[in-house]
Design goal:
The chain has 217 residues and is of the alpha/beta class. The protein contains nine helices and seven strands; from the N terminus they run E-H-H-E-H-E-H-E-E-E-H-H-E-H-H-H. Strands 1-7-2-4-3 form a five-stranded parallel β-sheet, with helices on both faces. Strands 5-6 form a two-stranded antiparallel ribbon. Helix 7 crosses helix 9. 36% of the residues are buried.
Length: 217
């Protein structure tokens, strides 16, 4: 298993310039011709295991600039990297499955590979979690590493790193994300609802990913 860890606090601006000059994703999609896409077999996707607000958008843009077809939050061909993810005219019962998190959860619930039919054609998945009903989060990067390794043993895992305190500050400033974290209950992953501080959860996740990769090279 491959893993690449990098602090993106400084790197993101080095790569993309000041925020106001960074290209938006829609423009990047238009500027990358199909023939330049770096094709990887479906059995070897790039999977970002970072938590929300950990530089996943910067990684997504980096993939696109490099000619790698990438999904960020939305796993639907031609969709944005933010809600709504479904294309115009999609029937109501299928709309939610255009979000990566919902598509992954549906697949795992019925024993299918996590990314099956999640916008088939993506070579990288930069943001794979999402919101659930009840104001909680679905975090397959926390709960489904085993399944992702089982179905994609040749995958490349990427974990972008921040200082835990800086990451918690980013979460607290991003709309209601901090309350979503507080409502999320994952006791089997040492994250009991409303008890663990964000910094500790972030550090535990980082260590869990590193331990998993060491055990599954």
């Amino acid at each position: 298993k491959n893993i690449y860890s990098k602090n993106l606090d400084v790197q993101s601006q080095k790569i993309f310039g000041p925020p106001q000059l960074a290209m938006n994703t829609d423009n990047l999609r238009k500027k990358i011709p199909p023939k330049s896409l770096l094709k990887r077999p479906k059995s070897a996707p790039i999977i970002v295991l970072s938590l929300p607000k950990s530089g996943t958008k910067s990684l997504h843009r980096f993939f696109l600039c490099s000619g790698i077809s990438s999904a960020h939050y939305c796993c639907s061909p031609g969709a944005n990297d933010h809600p709504p993810c479904y294309p115009e005219g999609e029937i109501a019962s299928k709309r939610k499955f255009h979000a990566c998190g919902n598509c992954i959860k549906r697949n795992l619930d019925i024993g299918q590979p996590p990314f099956q039919e999640c916008g088939d054609g993506f070579n990288a998945f930069a943001h794979i979690g999402g919101e659930k009903s009840g104001g909680t989060l679905y975090l397959p990067q926390v709960t489904a590493m085993e399944e992702m390794h089982k179905h994609y043993p040749r995958a490349t895992f990427i974990l972008s790193l921040f200082d835990a305190t800086s990451w918690a500050e980013r979460v607290n400033k991003w709309f209601s994300l901090s309350s979503f974290f507080k409502n999320t209950n994952l006791p089997e992953f040492n994250y009991p609802k409303g008890v663990l501080e964000l910094e500790e959860f972030y550090t535990n996740h980082t260590n869990r990913v590193r331990d998993f990769v060491r055990a599954n090279p």
